[in-house]
User: Fold this.
Amino acid sequence: MSFVAAGSYLINSLGGLVEGLETLRPFSPFYYSGASNPLRNGLDGRHALVLAGAAVLLLGLAVLAVRSRDLGIGGIRLPVLRVGKASG
Assistant:
């Protein structure tokens, strides 16, 4: 995963220097987080919506990936602690 983050950062950084990479800059989340200079000019609403949409999409994909795992087969079975009534 860090390879994807480093690659998208490089595409965004080098996109301003290399003409061939300029068209790939919108595919990097770093483009949307810093393109409008949010510390000086405020947050651009369209860029914030793109980042929020990407976060929701990736969260949905992660939930689907985790839910499809079969965690009940094999592995270690932990004992279940059963609490009964106290005598006395």
